[in-house]
Amino acid sequence: MKQIKGLLSLFIVALITVSCFEDLDDQPITTTEINDFVWSGMNLFYLYKDDVPDLANNRFANNEAYINYLNGFSRPEDLFENLIYERPTVDRFSWIVDDFIALEESFQGVSITNGMEFQLYRFPSASSTLFGVVTYVLPDTHAQSKGVTRGDIFYAVDGTSLNTGNYLQLLNQSSYTIDLGEYNTNDTDDTSDDSITPINKSISLTKTQYDENPVYIQKVIEQSQRKIGYLMYNAFTGTDAYNQALNQAFGAFKSAGISDLVLDLRYNSGGSVNSAILLSSMITGQFNGDIFCTEQWNSEIQATFEQEAPEQLINRFVNSLNGSSLNSLNLSKVYVLTTGRSASASELVINGLKPYIQVIQIGTTTAGKYQASTTLYDSPDFGRQGANPAHTYAMQPLIYKSLNADGETDYFNGLTPAIELGEQVTNMGVLGDVNEPLLSAALSTITGIAKKAPSKTYPLEMINSSDAFKTVQPGMHVNKPLSSILK
Questions:
Q1: What are the CA-CA distances from residue 234 to residues 250, 269, 282, 343, 470 (Å)?
Q2: Fold of the domain built from segment(s) 215-454+471-480
Q3: What is the pLDDT of residue 400?
Q4: Which residues does 452 contact at the CB level (< 8 Å), separation at least 6?
Q5: Where in the chain is CATH 2.30.42.10?
Q6: Residue 391 pLDDT class (50, 70, 90 cuts)
Q7: Which residues in the chain are classed under CATH 3.90.226.10?
Q8: Residue 127 pLDDT more than 90?
Q9: Residue 105 burial (CB < 10 Å; 0-12/13-18/19+)?
Q10: d(CA 410, CA 422)
């Protein structure tokens, strides 16, 4: 399976390139050298290599043809996109960055944020006009100190109305001012005449570096003589510290003797596969050592694993974290709150648990991401150690798709809830409160006590969210040693 990393090294003196980059020591590196890293990594690891003709092992007749191909792309990003298989439909989640330091910090839960998490919508009658709705506010951030709260609506930034053409630029600034408004139904059931009415209030926000604990809310709710655990978990960050925080939350549930669990993943766009396994093992506990999910790589790597190390294709339930026992609840049923922002590792938990326990999904259909990615660096084995110091490019391509113990995968259209209920911009509620619509629906299902359904729904199209402004994009990320594949 060993592959020569980079044909380019044989022809360094012959490089012809349109531009060059400066490294941290002001040593130039050519675009073509970085492009060599991009092609080589994708040729070896990309999940959809078999479907991309430019990644075929026999694609180039000779080294000169290879160099000419690389020189045809003035930016590494352009080459990377050229190698993606069906970007709009199949591979929506691979990406490349020019600063892997920021990427690594984001994987650790560190980001640059003002603390305002939001979603952007547009009205059916106005195809380009947007407005934002605050979904939650991170503690100890500028947004919290300025009084931003869940359900706040903003229609403009720095006095400029939001639209599909300007929102990325306006909201990507380090500092900006949001102009607030109110949702106006115009007293009709028809959303085509709905609008946002300005309320003459603005809030200025500034982004700073922030370390986010993914355990956002953890509480025990007592209803109908039942103790119900509620956990809002907003990212599968994957660090030891935050895995321990998750285990501590389950320790509190275990000590309280909860009988039911509501797992709120509505804004969780994914993260570490290992954290997904840990969370699923904490929810259960009775399946230690059983198959949680399996991996399917491109044909070359898959064949190598199956022949030489088949166990590496299997991820199993566990019962410990760094030598300490997991606080497992041994549940046979779990209630999961989802939206279209619930992706990858969130979906992995749902799909991975389904063969073993009853998973009652409440909310709206998930994102539909069953593939995992990993970080590739410009080094001999594509790992972090020995990364080329002349640049900070790294790639996050899809490398395998996950299957649960029953072989279920390819849920491209997302996982559909058993109880359909969307969030309403006019009634967001307070997260963790028993009257918040999605949590209320879960509690009603658990206790059997019917709650009054929302009287009106608002079929608005969500265009994007605050996830778009983060270094780490929605995805399922693995930190699996890749060096063995090169041997």
A1: 15, 8, 17, 11, 14
A2: 2-enoyl-CoA Hydratase; Chain A, domain 1 (3.90.226)
A3: 96
A4: none
A5: 114-211
A6: very high
A7: 215-454+471-480
A8: no
A9: middle
A10: 24
User: 244-263: per-residue pLDDT in tens?
Assistant: 999 999 999 999 999 999 99
pLDDT tens column, 47-98 = 999 999 999 999 999 999 999 999 999 999 999 999 999 998 899 889 999 9
Taking the C-alpha atoms of residue 204 and residue 179, their distance in angstroms, rounded to an integer, is 9
Cα separation of 186 and 179, whole Å? 21
In a 10 Å sphere around its CB, with 0-12 CB exposed, 13-18 middle and 19+ buried, how is residue 468 labelled? Answer: middle
**Side-chain-side CA neighbours of residue 478 (13 Å):** 19
Three-class SS of 151-163: CCEEEEECCEECE
Contact 235, 109 (CB under 8 A): yes
* Paired tokens of 281: 């093992």
What would be the CATH architecture of the domain defined by 114-211?
Answer: Roll (2.30)
Residue 233 token pair: 């978990």
Which residue in 257, 224, 236 sits closest to 329, CA to CA?
A: 257
How far apart CA 196 and CA 215 sit, in angstroms, is 33
Contact present, 356 and 287 (Cβ < 8 Å): yes
CB 428 within 8 A of CB 132: no
Contacts of 124 (CB under 8 A, 6+ apart): 191, 192, 459, 460, 461
